[in-house]
Amino acid sequence: MSILSGLLDRGRVSNFSRNYYEVVFSIFTVAIAYFYRDNPRIVYPTILYFFLLLMVSNLAFNQLLRKRVSVSLWAIDFTLIFNLCVITGVLYYSGGGESYFWVLYLLPIFAAAMLGRLEDVAGVVLLSSLATALFSRPLRMSDLAEVMSLLVKLSVFIVSAAAVYRSANARKKAETALQSKRREVEAMTRELMTKDTELAQTASAGEVGQLVSGIMHDLGNSLSVILLSAQLADEDDAPDKKDIGRIVKAAQFSRTLIANALNIVRGREYVFEPGDIREPLENAVQLVSYAAMQKGAAVRTEVQPGLPRINMSKVHIERLFINTLFNSLSFVPQHGEVTVKVAAGGNKLTIEIADNGPGFPESMLKDGIKAFRTTRKAAGGTGLGLHVCVQIAEKHGGKLAIANGPSGGSVVKVTLPVFTG
């Protein structure tokens, strides 16, 4: 059974073209069919049904792809074969071998070529060529014009497939290199966030020598993130906004890191200002978005409108969100969910970060949050994340508590006083 499933599993692809050129091309050919509706070879309204089927199927498939990171090759195979059948129907009801709609076969040929898989391209070109040749029957070798017409069609199929296939392979190599660099950047970003919590712990202990060393290391990582993200944006034909956003965040982090270090030396570790909690929340969600995408997880925010301001050290509140979100994402299953709810009640602001993971262990619920105590030591956990969050909440005159939800999963609840000045 496992051998059969292995043979049937063709794998998945994540670089399939997500665009609407099929639909645009179909609309163009429908327009041609309309203007040539008096042509006796075209069967109305049957041919319009086939065009409508072609457009709807491609539109639906592209819409499905927009919501998925990857798609099964079997699904693509089915779509290509379905398109071939529909296009064959278009030719059948528009004159067969004399139909000028034979160019529609370029749609599945282009789609297969964009996959960058030689066997898929060869299969689609072969099926398109066979269908075109069958429509040209009976082929009289004495009729040079008829023979040349068929050869021209087959040549267009082969040359177009080869050109798109070559372009797709070149693009695939470039995308592979870009993805490799993106993974390197994300690894540095994760390390940067881990070192951020360690720096807070070091600062609270007053170890100035280690503080300076940690700042220099973190600045080096931050600059590496900026440099590599800039290289990604420079090498990509259409720069990813996430790469640009990562440059901005890393630069802001560097500036804040230096400012905080100076404040610590001057004895002012926390700088409180009245502000809206939405800004640090949105920054944190953006920074953890790649980690969430890697697990197919969703990070949802439910923020009550018209929230009152709080007197906060913005960088520390942002750190609180980052730590709690990373903690939840570490435990949620694939395609899990983390929800952040922020609401006001009385003179307090309540923040709840809930997930659908396994929840906190009973020992942790009983003994409370302690530094260097972690259940993720093998995965690189330091046990500092939630401990630092407790300190941040207390510095803001609030508190942090942990619990498990009634239907499972962990819940981190933070209460902070609202600004009344």
What's the layout of helices and strands?
Layout (H helix, E strand, L loop, with lengths): L1 H7 L3 E2 L7 H15 L10 H21 L4 E2 H20 L13 H9 L3 H18 L8 H62 L2 H28 L5 H25 L7 E3 L2 H17 L3 E6 L6 E3 L1 H18 L5 E9 L2 E8 L6 H6 L17 H11 L3 E6 L5 E8 L4
Parallel strand pairs: 4-6
Antiparallel strand pairs: 1-2, 3-5, 6-7, 7-9, 8-9
Helix pairs in contact: 2-3, 3-4, 4-5, 4-6, 5-6, 5-7, 6-7, 7-8, 8-9, 10-11, 11-13
Kindly describe this structure:
It is a single chain. The chain has 421 residues and is an alpha+beta fold. It has 3 domains: 2-137, no CATH class; 179-265; 275-417, Histidine kinase-like ATPase, C-terminal domain (Heat Shock Protein 90, 2-Layer Sandwich), CATH 3.30.565.10. The chain has 13 helices and 9 strands. The protein has helices at residues 2-8, 21-35, 46-66, 73-92, 106-114, 118-135, 144-205, 208-235, 241-265, 278-294, 314-331, 362-367, 385-395, and strands spanning 12-13, 71-72, 273-275, 298-303, 310-312, 337-345, 348-355, 399-404, 410-417. A 5-stranded mixed β-sheet has the order 4-6-7-9-8, covered by helices on one side. A two-stranded antiparallel sheet has the order 1-2. Helix 6 runs antiparallel to helix 7 (144-205) and helix 7 (144-205) packs antiparallel against helix 8. It is elongated and about 90 Å long. Residues 1-7, 199-211 and 376-383 have low confidence and may be disordered.
